[in-house]
Amino acid sequence: MVFTFKEDLPSTVPAIGKALRRFMKQVHSRGFAPEVRWRVETATHEALLNAHNHGNRADPRKRISFQAAFGRGAIVVRITDQGEGFDPDQARNSQVDESALLKPAGRGLLMIRSLASDVQFEDGGRRIVLTWKGGRP
């Protein structure tokens, strides 16, 4: 897979916002359906914020790697932080109840899992790989 969108950004909220806007321009220009664009933007934003808040613990000296690949009717996003990692199975077990979506915090992974076609964790939980299939004319 060839990642055509690549950004190495400081772990700050403004940098995340700017990178997400640049990425979404590419998603939009490739003709993906509006619902897919919304799912991609919402889940990617949440994953970037998780990398900033939980992975890098809001340390602006740490970096976030944000990459995306576009294929035939598919988008793959890979986000890597410089944190200590985590066990995604532990997080999955604590978020089984969908009422967690209504809570002000702790719902990020549940949202991401519900919006992406596939979610994988790599590098001891320091990297999340999100995939969306379909939705392109």
Architecture overview:
The protein is α+β, with helices and mostly antiparallel strands. The protein has helices spanning 13-29, 34-55, 88-94, 108-115; strands at residues 5-10, 63-71, 74-80, 118-122, 127-133. A hairpin with a 4-residue loop joins strand 4 and strand 5. Helix 2 packs antiparallel against helix 4 (108-115). The longest helix is centred in the N-terminal third of the chain and has 22 residues, at 34-55. The protein is globular, with a radius of gyration of 14 Å. It starts with a strand and ends with a strand. 26% of the residues are buried.
Key terms:
137 residues, alpha+beta, five-stranded antiparallel sheet, 39% helix
The structural class is: alpha+beta
* pLDDT averaged residue by residue: 89
Order of secondary-structure elements? EHHEEHHEE
Query: Which quaternary structure do these chains form?
Result: single chain
Number of helices: 4
From the alpha-carbon coordinates, what is the Rg to the nearest angstrom? Answer: 14 Å
Biggest sheet details:
5 strands, antiparallel
Sheet with most strands: strand arrangement: 1-2-3-5-4
Q: Detail the poorly predicted runs.
A: none
Number of strands: 5
What share of the residues does DSSP label as strand, in percent?
A: 15-25%
Q: Kindly, what is the distance between the CA atoms of the first and last residues, rounded to a whole number of angstroms? A: 21 Å
What percent of the residues sit in helical stretches (DSSP H or I)? Answer: 25-40%
Using the alpha-carbon principal axes, give the shape.
Answer: globular
